[in-house]
């Protein structure tokens, strides 16, 4: 089966920040997990480079827009290895291949009769690159997002006949209750549709930095349609000579809640107009709110992702973001919150489980995992190891990143309790308990292997080190008890060293 996941493409005018990393890591976790299930995965991210704000910023600097985007796009691309992201392609909407494909698709929409010429007059926010309807206006004709005064614009545009898709979109939502998740976002999009769809501008005159309409070269495509089309155009040229569209389309989109309307309403309608399949679905995440009142031990008082990565590694940041804030909701992140999770969960729970499991196998069984049967005691119950792989796969099928991590973490805690209950160090003193000790040590190693395979998508570097130390070569998701044991282990330095207070 193919699995195609995308991030939003990031507007090149901004500096990369935690919000960009958050969307991208989410998509990366899904891509990595699906590869572990032998799915045929394609994972796309990139930059959105057209539109008025880029042209204006370039003008201020006295350079061409092309020069500005060539300067800024690499900042986003360079972020990816820093956060352990495994994208298959990086699209830039200024790629000539993208532009050519956008023109080809918009020509189809034109030929299918879904565009017409008209005059648009309305309140326009240059920062959103969007006209605001009367319902969306802030007090005194301001942008509700940017709080800046809107401009009254009147211009000749080509329009996209969005209203023609009223029934089809309502039907799509009725037939596919999981098209948009979480449920609250589905409801929001559906109520926007039910409020009655109006046609939207497809192009704007007077702009120069963008994709020109093939049948009217005075007009430049509205940046939103140009940007949305990246999800489709990338497949036409990312594969070198091979067109990947049939192999991977439709995609699952991971997006933030600020761009819901474009993705959940305009985008499927535009695809229908062009004769493409609509997306497989979309998951809308919330915001990470920066909280910083208390000064932390090592990280100051505002969570700086680059500092976290430098001091603790990207995996700790990846873990923290999805553990601390339920994916799909807004939630606060802070340096003290990070340190608390790092200490209590990564170092004391997982790190400790890893080090004592390896140490006991080394000491009591000469560094070789005994070949034994899995302990039914550890397999069973609500937090048992028996079906953790199926539970996590089921949740990640629905992009429930935090719930899946919760399921994994319950097993980490269960394994630690198991050590306390079985007391292998006492069993080791009694020769008659040799068989029982084999079973306990095998079950611990196997439990650690199975949970680490599930954690690997969240923490690829740490997970690899752990699995190598366990002598586990295969990276495919595995059921508890599926490895027979007998392999050699290696000792590891601490996976999560203790936090030292920063020098002041
Ligand atoms: Zn705005």
Concise account of the structure shown:
The chain has 504 residues and is an alpha/beta fold. The chain has helices at residues 18-36, 52-61, 65-82, 96-111, 166-175, 183-194, 223-228, 230-237, 245-248, 260-274, 305-312, 314-324, 335-365, 376-379, 388-397, 401-422, 424-427, 434-455, 460-469, and strands at residues 2-11, 40-48, 89-92, 115-125, 130-132, 151-160, 180-181, 200-201, 203-204, 212-213, 216-221, 252-256, 281-285, 288-290, 331-333. It has a six-stranded parallel β-sheet, sandwiched between helices. It has a four-stranded antiparallel β-sheet with strand order 5-4-6-8.
Topology, element by element:
Blueprint: E1 2-11, H1 18-36, E2 40-48, H2 52-61, H3 65-82, E3 89-92, H4 96-111, E4 115-125, E5 130-132, E6 151-160, H5 166-175, E7 180-181, H6 183-194, E8 200-201, E9 203-204, E10 212-213, E11 216-221, H7 223-228, H8 230-237, H9 245-248, E12 252-256, H10 260-274, E13 281-285, E14 288-290, H11 305-312, H12 314-324, E15 331-333, H13 335-365, H14 376-379, H15 388-397, H16 401-422, H17 424-427, H18 434-455, H19 460-469
Parallel strand pairs: 1-2, 1-12, 2-3, 7-13, 12-13, 14-15
Antiparallel strand pairs: 4-5, 4-6, 6-8, 9-11, 10-11
Helix pairs in contact: 2-3, 4-8, 5-6, 6-10, 11-12, 12-13, 13-16, 13-18, 15-16, 16-18, 18-19
The chain binds zinc ion.
Protein described:
The protein is an alpha/beta fold. Helix content is 48%, strand content 15%. It has helices at residues 18-36, 52-61, 65-82, 96-111, 166-175, 183-194, 223-228, 230-237, 245-248, 260-274, 305-312, 314-324, 335-365, 376-379, 388-397, 401-422, 424-427, 434-455, 460-469; strands at 2-11, 40-48, 89-92, 115-125, 130-132, 151-160, 180-181, 200-201, 203-204, 212-213, 216-221, 252-256, 281-285, 288-290, 331-333. The protein has a 6-stranded parallel β-sheet, sandwiched between helices. A 4-stranded antiparallel β-sheet has the order 5-4-6-8. Helix 10 (260-274) links the parallel strand 12 (252-256) and strand 13. The radius of gyration is 26 Å and the shape is elongated. Residues 125, 127-128, 143, 145-146 line the site of zinc ion.
């Amino acid at each position: 089966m193919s699995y195609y996941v995308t991030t939003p493409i990031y507007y090149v005018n901004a500096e990369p920040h935690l919000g960009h990393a958050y969307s991208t890591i989410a998509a990366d976790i899904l891509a990595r997990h699906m590869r572990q299930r032998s799915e045929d995965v394609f994972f796309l991210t990139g930059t959105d480079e057209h539109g008025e704000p880029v042209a204006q910023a370039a003008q201020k600097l006295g350079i061409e827009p092309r020069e500005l985007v060539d300067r800024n796009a690499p900042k986003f691309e360079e972020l990816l290895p820093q956060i352990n992201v495994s994208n298959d392609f990086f699209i830039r909407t200024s790629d000539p291949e993208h532009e050519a494909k956008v023109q080809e698709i918009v020509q189809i929409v034109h030929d299918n009769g879904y565009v017409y010429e008209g005059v648009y007059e309305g309140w326009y926010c240059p920062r959103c690159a969007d006209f605001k309807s009367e319902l969306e206006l802030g007090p005194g004709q301001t942008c509700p997002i940017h709080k800046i005064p809107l401009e009254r614009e009147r211009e000749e545009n080509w329009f996209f006949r969005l209203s023609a898709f009223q029934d089809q979109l309502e039907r799509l939502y009725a037939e596919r209750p999981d098209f948009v998740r979480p449920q609250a976002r589905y409801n929001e999009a559906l109520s926007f549709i039910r409020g009655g769809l109006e046609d939207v501008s497809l192009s704007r005159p007077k702009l120069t930095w963008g994709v020109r309409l093939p049948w009217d070269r005075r007009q430049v495509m509205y940046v939103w349609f140009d940007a949305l089309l990246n999800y489709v155009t990338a497949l036409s040229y990312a594969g070198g000579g091979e067109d990947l569209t049939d192999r991977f389309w439709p995609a699952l989109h991971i997006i933030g809640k600020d761009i819901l309307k474009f993705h959940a309403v305009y985008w499927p309608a535009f695809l229908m107009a062009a004769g493409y399949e609509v997306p497989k679905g979309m998951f809308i995440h919330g915001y990470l709110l920066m909280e910083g009142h208390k000064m932390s031990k090592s990280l100051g008082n505002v969570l700086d992702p680059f500092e976290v990565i430098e001091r603790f590694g990207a995996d700790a940041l990846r873990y923290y973001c999805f553990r601390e804030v339920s994916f799909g909701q807004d939630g606060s992140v802070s340096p003290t919150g990070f340190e608390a999770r790092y200490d209590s969960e990564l170092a004391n729970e997982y790190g400790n489980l890893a080090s004592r499991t390896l140490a006991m196998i080394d000491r009591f069984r000469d560094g070789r995992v005994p070949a034994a049967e899995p302990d039914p005691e550890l397999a069973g119950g609500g937090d048992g190891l028996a079906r953790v792989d199926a539970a996590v796969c089921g949740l990640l099928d629905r992009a429930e990143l935090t719930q899946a991590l919760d399921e994994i973490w319950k097993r980490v805690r269960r394994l630690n309790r198991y050590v306390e209950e079985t007391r292998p160090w006492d069993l080791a003193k009694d020769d008659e308990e040799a068989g029982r000790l084999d079973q306990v040590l095998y079950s611990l190693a196997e439990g650690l292997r199975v949970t680490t395979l599930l954690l690997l998508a969240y923490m690829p570097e740490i997970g690899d080190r752990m699995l190598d130390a366990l002598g586990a070569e295969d990276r495919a998701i595995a059921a508890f008890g599926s490895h027979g044991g007998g392999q050699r282990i290696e000792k590891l330095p601490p996976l999560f060293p203790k936090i030292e207070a920063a020098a002041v």
